[in-house]
Each structure stands twice: as C-alpha cells, then as structure tokens.
Design goal:
It is a multi-pass membrane protein. One of its GO terms (molecular function) is phosphorelay sensor kinase activity. It catalyses: ATP + protein L-histidine = ADP + protein N-phospho-L-histidine. The radius of gyration is 38 Å and the shape is flat. A hairpin with a 6-residue loop joins strand 3 and strand 4. Helix content is 53%, strand content 18%. The N terminus is likely disordered. It is α+β, with helices and mostly antiparallel strands. The termini are far apart. The strands form 4 sheets. A 6-stranded antiparallel β-sheet has the order 7-6-11-10-9-8. A 5-stranded antiparallel β-sheet has the order 2-1-5-4-3. Strands 13-15-16-18-17 form a 5-stranded mixed β-sheet, with helices on one face.
C-alpha cells in the first residue's frame, strides 16, 4: 500500500513546478510591454511639448526677421524728397553726382544699411554711397537684376542675392523714382542680414530662412548657407546661374535622410553626418517647424533636437518596466503572505464575530452622532476650499489686470515715440547742414530743440514705467503747455500737411500727468491730420469749456468723418481705418485708458456738418491744490 504515495506526491508537485517555471515568461513579456508603452507615451508627450515650445519660438523669431526686413522699406522712397536726386537723373553732371554721392553716403551711415545707390532707367549706377571705396558700384550696369526690372515698371523691388561686385550677400529694396508722372530712375538700398544669424548663434538656436527658390539664405549654421532645401531641376539651376543671384555658388542640395509629417508645417526629419573619412554616424532627429514670413515669399524654419525627448522617453520606459516588475514581485509576495494568514484568520473567526457584533451595536448607537460630525466636517472643509479658491482667483484676476495694462503700454511705446524720433531726425539733419554753412546760431537753436525732445522722450518712457509700477497716476498738467508740446512733436507732419488751427480755449490746470495729457493730444491731432490728408482745405478746432468740476476739450476736424459701421469699434485695440501699415489701432485705445485712469473720459462725436470730434473730459485742479 505505501507504493502509490510517491505517485500522488509527484502529481501534486509537477503542476506547481510547471507553473513556477512558466510564470516568469509572461511576466517578462508584460514588463517589456509596459516599458515600450511608457516609452511611447513619454515620447508623444515630450514631442507635443516640444511642438508647443517650438511654435512660440517660431513665432518670436519669425516676427524678428519680419521686423528686420521691414525696417528699411521706407528708405528707397525717401530719395524722392531730395531735389538733387531728381536733377541728377534728369540732367546728369559731375557736380550733381558729387552732391548726390555725399548725400547717399551720409544717409547710408545714419540708416545703418550696407549701401544706397541710384540707377537710371537703363540700369546704370549714377551715384552710390560707397563712391569712395575701391569696390564702388559707380558706373556698373545692373539692369539684369530682378529688383531693377520690377522697380522700373513701378512695382516694389524685393530681392536677396550676392553682389556681383563685392561678392557680399544682402537684401535689396528698390523703388522707382517718379517725376512728372513718369519713372526717371530707381533707388536701391542693400541691407545686411548678418545680425540675425549672430543673434541665432548666441541663443544657440538652430534655424534658417529659405527664399522663393528654396535656397537657404540665412542660417545659424554657416555650413547650410546657400544650400537647396528641395531638389533643383536642370532648368532651375541654369536660370539661377544666368541671373547671378547667388553669384557662382554650386547650390548643393541639403536633403534629410528621413522625413515624417506630424502636422501642418511640422515634420520629424533625420540627418546622417559623415566624418572626414566618409563614414556615416548615427542618425540625428529634429523637429522641423516652418512658417512663411509676411510680405515675402520666404520661409522661416526652426529645428528642435529630439535627442533629449527620446532620452527621457527611454528613461521613462525603463522606469515603467522596473515599476511593473516591482509591483509584480509585491503581488506575488502578498499572495504568499495571504495564504499563510488565511490559516491564522480561521482560528480567530469566532472571536472576530463577537467583536463584530459588539462593534455593530456600538455603531448603531453612535451612528447618528458620527454622521452629524462627518457632515459638519465636510461642510467646514468645503467652505475652506471655496474661500481658498476665491482668494486665489481674486489674486490671479488682479495680477492679470496689471499684466494686461503693462502689455498694452509696452506694445504702444513705439507708437508714442515715433513722432519725437521723426522730429529728432529732421532737426539733426538740419543741424549738420547749418554747421557746414557756418550758421552757428541756427544750429545751436536746433541742438537746444533736440535736447528738449530727448528730455520729452525720457519723460514719456519714465511715465510708462511709472504707469506699470503703481495704480494711481493723478498729477497736474497745464493745457496750454500740453498743446504746444503736442504741436512741436507733430511739426514735421504739420509742415508736410499744413492746416489752419483754431485755438478757442483758455489755459487750465487739469488733474492728469503732464506727459499723459500730451500723449492724448498727440494721438488726437495726428488722427485728425491723417483724416484730412487727402483734401485741400484743412481746419482743426481746439475748443475748451468748463462744465462743473471738469474741463471739456473738443478736438474737431473738417475731414470726411468716420463711416457708421466703424464707429462702434473706434476704441477697440488694433482697430484702425487707416489704409495699409499707417496705423496699429492703439492710439485711441491708449488715449481712452489714460483719460479713464485720470478720472475723466474720451468719447467720439460726429457733427452733422461733417468731420469728427473727440470730446476729452478731465477733472480740474483747484487753485489752492495747484499752488501746493
């Protein structure tokens, strides 16, 4: 009879042994699956975060490129204002050429451009800012250049290329000069773009700009410059070679080893670098994000390395696999421990039942009290959470309001300083001419005016900083002084667009900062001048009256008025009725906010006789407060 016992024991042990041997295999597969899943989740989240960060950098740096390009768009058309330029194009003489050369040299030095030169209608250079250099453009025939062919037909010439004389790259802006209803010549400005590349290199940014031909013209990596980002056909290469746009560069193609689209304008691309022996290294992956630059057929591309994202994803995958393995080990240990405790719990079952019965009776007697206490604690906790949430929301709302005002003032600083800068430019140019002529008294008066304009600009920027620091900017301002200061800032525009000014007000002391009142008047008068620019009879009335404790100043013009559909949007940010790029739509918004901050108001009126009137209402300061 003892013989069958080993067989029974063997039957019991064998399934347990097989189970223990096969258990690690599914556990290992699950661990690998968790690791791979963690890698995919972390890689996807990291890529999305990198895309969001890249979009912000892409917008920031693309806007920087657009600002750099648009800085000099006005410069070619400025030559139409110089009489010597028109006389040289109509009747070229050596004396007139010398005058224009000196003028272009000074203008180029002040503007900070690479070169400014003048071409006749045949494409030959008549005058240039680098006329004294060994590589001067004087006398060259540039009729083959695309920017000349566009400008001579009345279109704005925009062109990036390498100079055929100096071999130096640059961005060319051309404008056809009109006299007597016909184009008599072309003004060209060559701009240096190397500053953008230097900023990218300092910021350790991997980015480049490609032109309409797919050629990289600007790059943080000098090795990528003048390489094609897309395949060029034989006809394209022949056409570009004939145009000499890129001089004699080979225009080699720069193609990635792998490419995968991730969205609109977003790609994952890889490159394999080769060492000096031609051996390829491991593929490097980048996130490529592109955006077209405004007013140009160029594209700005930002490359973000994916190496750190993949490394973090690998670490997260390993951690997920290790975490699953640890969890599985704990579950197995817990299962074994549960089996041991099951035998002990069976012996204590009777005692536990007695204890449970006692606890049940106690729970029934104290249930109502516990429920009441629990309900009271829940109400206290919810009320504390609600108070904390409300306090945080109020703090965030106050901070958001401050940041919104600071952002509005910061974005409009260029609009506020534009007219003083224009006045400084005109006065400084006149001072140089008066010094050359020996008119020291006139030059001295111009320098004093420049000093006053600089002080005014300092007051404006100081006022902006004060507005950002504190909530109360009530001060005192003299109306007569503010009007004179505003007219001084706008004197250049008033000379170009003269008008008849009717001053029908008495001087008053108003409860607003002096600089802020001048800013409001500059915006209102400038808008009136722009509105009447297309008519011959220009009338501007400044009418003041006292209404209780407030002073009402009306700024009215006889312009064409504001269309009815646009009146309700006048004080909205970035809304403007000016054509093209003549306004940002921030002047009236800023003026209204300044008047409101001083306790007053700014509203628009539309007289039946035509034109537009803006009613500025500000509190008056009592004589005793003014003297104090």
């Amino acid at each position: 009879m003892p013989a069958p016992l080993p067989a029974v024991s063997l039957q019991i042990v064998k399934p347990s042994l097989i189970r223990n041997l096969l258990l690690p295999i599914p556990l290992l597969l699950l661990m690998l699956g968790f690791g791979y899943g963690g890698y995919l989740v972390s890689s996807g989240a990291g890529t999305r975060a990198l895309i969001d960060s890249g979009e912000r950098q892409l917008e920031l740096h693309a806007s920087g490129v657009e600002r750099e390009i648009s800085r000099y768009t006005y410069l070619p058309s400025l030559l139409e204002l110089e009489g010597n330029v028109s006389r040289l194009l109509l009747e070229p003489t050596p004396y007139r050429r010398d005058l224009v050369n000196a003028y272009l040299e000074g203008l180029n030095r002040r503007a900070g451009s690479r070169a400014i030169y003048l071409l006749d209608t045949s494409g030959r250079v008549l005058a240039t800012s680098n006329w004294q250099d060994a590589d001067s453009y004087l006398g060259e025939d540039l009729s083959f250049r695309a920017y000349f062919q566009q400008a001579v037909t009345g279109q704005p010439g925009r062109f990036y290329g390498i100079g055929s004389t100096t071999g130096e790259p640059g961005y060319y802006l051309a404008h056809g000069l009109v006299h007597g209803g016909r184009i008599i010549g072309v003004a060209v400005v060559k701009v240096k773009m190397e500053a953008l590349e230097e900023r990218w290199e300092k910021a350790q940014l991997q980015a480049f700009v490609s032109d309409e031909n797919g050629i990289i013209i600007l790059s943080s990596n000098p090795q990528l410059r003048l390489k094609a980002v897309r395949p060029l056909s034989a006809d394209d290469k022949e056409r570009l070679a004939r145009s000499l746009q890129y001089y004699w560069w080979a225009l080699n193609e720069w193609q990635p080893s792998s490419r995968k689209a991730l969205g609109d304008g977003v790609e994952e691309i890889g490159f394999r670098d080769k060492d000096a022996k031609g051996v390829e290294h491991a593929e490097r992956l980048y996130l490529a994000q592109s955006r077209r630059l405004g007013d140009t057929p160029w594209h700005f591309t930002l490359l973000s390395p994916l190496r750190d994202v993949r490394r973090e994803a690998m670490i997260h995958g390993v951690l997920a696999a290790v975490g699953f393995a640890l969890l599985a080990f704990l579950l197995i240990a817990w299962n074994e421990r549960r089996k041991v405790l099951a035998t002990r719990l069976a012996a204590r079952e009777a005692l536990q039942q007695a204890n449970d019965e006692l606890e049940r009776r106690i729970a029934e007697r104290t249930g109502d009290l516990r429920a009441s206490n629990q309900h009271l604690r829940e109400q206290i906790r919810e009320r504390r959470q609600a108070e904390e949430t409300l306090r945080k929301a109020q703090d965030r709302l106050v901070q958001a309001g401050k940041l919104a005002v600071i952002g509005q003032m910061s974005t409009s600083i260029a609009h506020e300083l534009n007219q003083p800068l224009a006045a400084l430019r005109t006065l400084s140019g006149n001072t140089v001419r008066f010094l050359q002529r020996g008119a020291l008294d006139t030059a001295s008066s111009n320098l004093e005016a420049i000093n006053e304009m600089v002080d005014r600009m300092g007051r404006i920027t100081g006022s902006l900083r004060a507005f950002a620091r504190r909530a109360d900017d009530h001060g005192q301002a003299r109306l007569d002084k503010a009007v004179d200061a505003a007219l001084l800032v706008l004197q250049v525009r008033l000379k170009a667009c003269p008008l008849t000014l009717h001053r029908e007000f008495e001087d008053a002391c108003l409860g607003i900062d002096q600089t802020r009142l001048e800013q409001i008047l500059v915006n209102l008068i400038a808008n009136a001048v722009d509105a009447m620019s297309a008519q011959d009879d220009r009338q501007l009335w400044l009418v003041g009256r006292i209404e209780g404790t407030f002073y009402q100043l009306s700024v009215r013009d006889n312009g064409p008025g504001i269309p009815p559909h646009a009146r309700q949007h006048l004080f909205e940010p970035f809304f403007t009725t000016k054509p093209g790029e003549h306004g940002l739509g921030l002047g009236l918004t800023l003026s209204a906010s300044l008047a409101t901050a001083a306790g007053g108001s700014l509203v628009a009126a539309h007289p039946e006789g035509g034109g537009t009137a803006f009613e500025l209402s500000l509190p008056m300061v009592r004589p005793e407060e003014s003297s104090a």
